Fold Gliding motility-associated ABC transporter substrate-binding protein GldG.
Amino acid sequence: MKNIQFKSPLGILLFVILPLVIILAISGIRLDLTKEKRYTLSESTIKVLEGVKKPIYIEVYLEGDFPADFKQLQSETKFILENFRKVNPNVDFKFVDPIKTLIPKDTLLSRGIYPSVLDDRKSGKTSQIEIYPYAYIKNGRNKVAVPLIVEQNYTDNAELINKSIENLEYNLVSKLKIATNEDFKKVGVLINQDELSPGEFQGFMNLALENYDAGPIIPKNQVELTMADVPLLKEMSALVIAKPRKAFTDGEKVILDQYIMNGGKTLWMIDAVNAEMDTLMRSEKLMPFPIDLNLTDFFFNYGLRINPALVKDVKKFANLKFVAGEVAGNAQYSTQPWPYFPLGIAENEHPITKNINPVKFEFPTSIDTLGRKNIKTSVLFESSERTTLKQVPNYVSLEEINTVDSLGQMEKPSTPKIFAVALQGKFTSAYSSRIERNSYPNFKTSSPENKMIVIADGDVARNKVVKGKPLPLGMDILTQERFGNEQFLKNALDYLLDDSNLMELRNRNIEERLLDRYLINEERNYWQWFNLLLPLAIIALLGVLFFWLRKKKFG
């Protein structure tokens, strides 16, 4: 038999490629050749997994008979968890069909696992099936439910699954970190400035308590923050200030300034104008007026200015449902666009806003960014190009629904206005050259690397209360729409307190490489015959070639 040359194509196949394939198969090593490295775990994920010291078990409720799109999600989830287990054998998992294994529905609900009802089309018939796209992480007493499907309205299954796959690694590893964490970071909510009531803030507290040790910060003297409150503030990793309506004193501003200079993260939700929808619905007209919180110089130091003028967006807005009349004693409702409730729609790739539902703002004002050295300013949400400003004091009337595109008194055309920004960098104290610094021992003039989020709307964190019961954050009970306020604020907290850079995983983009369905339908017959006849033609050609070679050699 003739010797096979090493440099020949057959030699390369036998002596290089085939051994390499066998080695990779035996070792379990996989080569990720995708452009976006979708099958490679990030360094942040590996760091979290290496920190898991005790066995942890994950049940994934993606087993059973469901549409092909969800089979893809199942496959991607299984692949990621297999990689988790390779990095750390303490992580184990199992796929479970909750319906087939007869797990009671009440048990699933108590775990925070809710069903999804899907249309299933087979043989021209449509039926509905119920699935539970969740993972359930168990680590001793710590148990965490992980939604595997992102919550996003008005998207088809294929797009929804693709967005869910993009977020899959982040959702799993961030929740796994929570399940293995024995020391939760503390989040303080300032209670002193006539902020939202406990019922109106219940939704935010619920989302904060999922991942953090959250609680109120109440001044010891019941009047204002003083040096006596500083030890408690130092324990807080982040401080939330939600819709203050009482002005801050200079002493309080120094304490907050030094909280930031010492590395404390802050989430500000500020109303610069007093305008309440309840008043408008009762009287059909209200007179908004500016609120002076004595924070102008404070935010100016960080390169921000919050303007006391209402933003009207006549392109991106929520609907308002109200009683328009009565027929036979029954109230008749009308749903109309309301430009004072603009929607925040993510138009950038920031990890806080990516893949979430539109965020509903209520009577927001705008933020001007002035720029500061060593501070990176990222716009999270802004209005559309069809925006006008209503200077205050000025009347706001329900009659404006009928003239959404018209300019009213003291209104003028404007450019897009910013509703929310994220700041990151080394902040400089607003009091570094002022006499107030003497009131704070060990005064610091600059901060380490720090973060801050400012939102020009205090109602973004307010949930509605109906008959004494708080509704989920972002839920409009009249229009039955669920906005993305909860996910936005949850991501905001995670961004502020993310010391593992896990939030960057939310920026992962997975390109859909799908076949053209219309072209498939048009050329279906051609490709069916092609796939049927081509193998037969190849076999016939090989048979003829073999017969000819045999005849030539032995004939």
